[in-house]
């Protein structure tokens, strides 16, 4: 704090409070030793890998053979790699669906769970089980349910007179099917975030709206939704990041197949690093992938600011 | 309001609560049905599991699938690996994360919190390539250490994140009183703040443990035959025993059971922790 504001603060505060604030500030810098052990761990397992990845991405490095500096050759190769381009579009397609559907369903679910009803606690616990369950375990159950001949899902379809689907075994249905698993898995997280938002809403506007004769829908559209906007934005950003990074269920269920029909960036990255052992090339993928994630997150934050300005 | 609307009310309300009940049912059943189907598959013999139309209620239920899982001589070893890794990674995360959360909250070091956020945004795979090479160089492969250390990528940020939020919410006056009375800042932390932070520590412990227990990708890349954790082991069962659904479901159920039970018991803490940070592992 600069001199001018300090005198202003001191005048505003009572003597004892100012004393305490000063002592707090003086103490603050003594707390750094508390952070040292965590900082060491974070540097070793998080910061070191970031820097090392940047370095590897400008090297040709195939496990078993040697390493050589190649400048931006890996990035140039990525620029022309059709398979990588396809994986980006596939990831964006998957992400768009895996953001919009959980956010809509999760908001609806939050509105339901915000009301009091018998057995609400139990219902909510069951509802959030999918997101806590081990992804590999539930992915295996889904795999069994997707079986074209013996799977329970095709039996359910047949009960409604719908012809059987090939689910994850057909290139045209594999992404929507994986989105369905992702929606099942992560809608609860959106619900929890929005539910937290609903709990924090003020009551006054609703009472005023009731007096003015607003319908339930109007109250939702013109009071709840605008007040929920910041929470929805957080949910959208978290969903976007998580959907871009989705790996476990896709890998377990399809491993990117059939062919490359469900090969998202993360699967492409995995195959290059740990099936083909092209460490340098895979590192370049990591860098581009990370830039894409940060870029999309910033774009969402920016659009939120724009949205706020427009509302003013 | 006229009399007709008053009279119309009872059936309208009944209709409304029926619709609401259906909405709750529609929301809960996809979650419930998948887990019930998993249970059903694990309790039926192979003939019933591959019957079409499907057999839903095991009749009679059999524990043969679970017996088959435990008779695979490596299942107990893999369970042990999972326990060592998850408890180890959670313990280290708490040991470094609780003081760090305290220090960051006291120093109001928001920049440190941003670093934690970026760590959360980074795809898990991107840590693996450098760490994989590092472990090869220093010759740790074949032990549980590489897996435990990479799990710190998940557990340390969540522990720090939860603890920052928790310590920021504490009033701080009690510690100040202790400091005025001549306690060192370490004593104020150890004897005043730490006991108050117990609920926050519970949240951090549960979430760190679950993230570590559920993690698949790190162990899949780093584990050898002897060091596989349960998620990796269960995934391998699918690859090698294509259509033996009973043991597979039984194994999947055993892997996820600790987490499901923990969720049922500690739902409140988990919800508090997740809504605060909006975080998940991976």
User: Whole-number average pLDDT of chain B?
Assistant: 86
Number of domains of chain B: 1
In CATH terms, the superfamily of chain B is: MetI-like
Helix content of chain B: over 70%
What CATH architecture label of chain B applies? Orthogonal Bundle
CATH class of chain B: Mainly Alpha
CATH topology name of chain B: MetI-like fold
General description of the model:
The complex is a heterodimer of chains A (about 300) and B (about 280). By secondary structure, chain A is mainly alpha-helical. Chain A has 2 domains: about 5-55, no CATH class; about 75-310, MetI-like (MetI-like fold, Orthogonal Bundle), CATH 1.10.3720. Helices cover about 75% and strands about 0% of the residues of chain A. Chain A contains 14 helices and 2 strands, in the order αααββααααααααααα. Chain A has helices at about 5-10, 15-30, 35-55, 75-80, 80-115, 120-130, 135-145, 150-160, 175-200, 205-210, 215-245, 250-255, 265-275, 280-310; strands at about 60, 65-70. In chain A, strands 1-2 form a two-stranded antiparallel sheet. The longest helix of chain A has about 35 residues, at about 80-115. The radius of gyration of chain A is 26 Å and the shape is globular. The two termini of chain A are about 30 Å apart. The model of chain A is unreliable at about 1-15 (pLDDT under 50). With about 280 residues, chain B is mostly helical. Chain B has a single domain (about 65-275), classed as MetI-like fold (Orthogonal Bundle). Chain B is built from 14 helices and no strands. Chain B has helices at about 5-40, 45-50, 65-70, 75-105, 110-120, 125-135, 145-170, 175-180, 185-195, 200-215, 215-220, 230-240, 245-265, 265-275. In chain B, helix 4 (about 75-105) runs parallel beside helix 7, helix 5 (about 110-120) crosses helix 7 (about 145-170) and helix 7 packs antiparallel against helix 10. The longest helix of chain B is centred in the first third of the chain and has 40 residues, at about 5-40. Chain B is flat, with a radius of gyration of 25 Å. Chain B starts with a helix and ends in a 5-residue tail after the last helix. Chains A and B meet through helix 2, helix 3, helix 5, helix 6 and helix 7 of A and helix 1, helix 4, helix 5, helix 6 and helix 7 of B.
């Amino acid at each position: 704090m600069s001199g001018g504001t300090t005198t202003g603060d001191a005048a505003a505060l009572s003597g004892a409070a100012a004393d305490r604030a000063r002592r707090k500030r003086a103490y603050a810098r003594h707390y750094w030793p508390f952070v040292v052990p965590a900082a060491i761990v974070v540097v070793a397992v998080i910061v070191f890998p970031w820097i090392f990845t940047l370095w590897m991405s400008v090297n040709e490095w195939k496990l078993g053979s040697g390493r050589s500096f190649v400048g931006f050759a890996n990035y140039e190769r990525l620029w022309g790699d059709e398979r990588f381009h396809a994986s980006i579009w596939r990831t964006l397609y998957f992400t768009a669906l895996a953001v919009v559907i959980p956010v809509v369903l999760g908001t609806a679910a939050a509105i339901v769970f915000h009301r009091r009803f018998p057995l609400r606690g139990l219902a909510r616990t069951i509802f959030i089980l999918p997101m806590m369950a081990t992804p590999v375990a539930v992915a295996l159950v889904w795999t069994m349910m997707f079986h074209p001949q013996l799977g329970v899902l095709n039996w359910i379809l047949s009960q409604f007179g719908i012809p059987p689907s090939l689910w994850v075994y057909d290139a045209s249905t594999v992404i929507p099917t994986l989105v369905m698993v992702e929606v099942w898995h992560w809608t609860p997280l959106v619900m929890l975030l929005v539910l937290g938002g609903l709990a924090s809403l003020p009551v006054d506007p609703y009472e005023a709206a009731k007096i003015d004769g607003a319908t339930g829908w109007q109250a939702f559209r013109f009071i709840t939704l605008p007040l929920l906007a910041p929470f929805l934005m957080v949910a959208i950003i978290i969903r976007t990041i998580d959907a871009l990074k989705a790996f476990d269920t896709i890998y377990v269920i399809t491993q990117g197949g059939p062919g490359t029909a469900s090969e998202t960036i993360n699967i492409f990255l995995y195959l290059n690093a740990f099936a083909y052992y092209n460490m340098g090339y895979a590192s370049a993928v990591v860098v581009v992938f990370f830039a894409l994630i940060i870029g999309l997150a910033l774009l969402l934050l920016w659009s939120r600011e724009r949205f706020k300005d427009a509302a003013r | 309001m006229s009399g007709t609307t008053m009279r119309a009310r009872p059936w309208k309300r009944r209709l409304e609560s029926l619709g609401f009940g259906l909405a709750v049912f529609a929301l809960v059943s996809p979650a419930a049905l998948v887990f019930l189907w998993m249970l059903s598959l694990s309790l039926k013999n192979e003939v019933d599991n591959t019957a079409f139309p499907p057999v839903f209620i095991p009749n009679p239920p059999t524990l043969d699938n679970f017996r088959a899982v435990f008779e695979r001589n490596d299942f107990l070893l893999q369970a042990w690996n999972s326990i060592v890794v998850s408890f180890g990674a959670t313990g280290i995360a708490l040991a470094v994360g609780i003081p760090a959360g305290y220090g960051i909250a006291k120093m109001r070091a928001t920049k440190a919190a941003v670093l934690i956020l970026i760590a959360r945004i980074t795809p898990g795979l991107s840590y693996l390539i450098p760490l994989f090479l590092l472990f090869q160089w220093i010759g740790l492969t074949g032990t549980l250490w590489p897996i435990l250390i990479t799990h710190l990528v998940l557990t340390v940020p969540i522990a720090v994140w939860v603890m920052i939020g928790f310590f920021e919410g504490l009033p701080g006056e009690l510690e100040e009183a202790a400091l005025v009375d001549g306690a060192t800042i370490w004593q104020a932390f150890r004897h005043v703040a730490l006991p108050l932070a117990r609920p926050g520590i519970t949240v951090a412990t549960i979430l760190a443990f679950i993230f570590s227990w559920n993690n698949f990708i790190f162990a899949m890349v780093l584990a050898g035959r002897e060091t596989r954790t349960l998620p990796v082991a269960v995934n391998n069962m699918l690859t090698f025993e294509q259509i033996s659904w009973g043991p597979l479901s039984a194994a999947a159920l055993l892997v996820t059971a600790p987490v499901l039970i923990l969720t049922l018991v500690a739902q409140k803490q988990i919800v508090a922790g997740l809504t605060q940070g909006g975080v998940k592992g991976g």
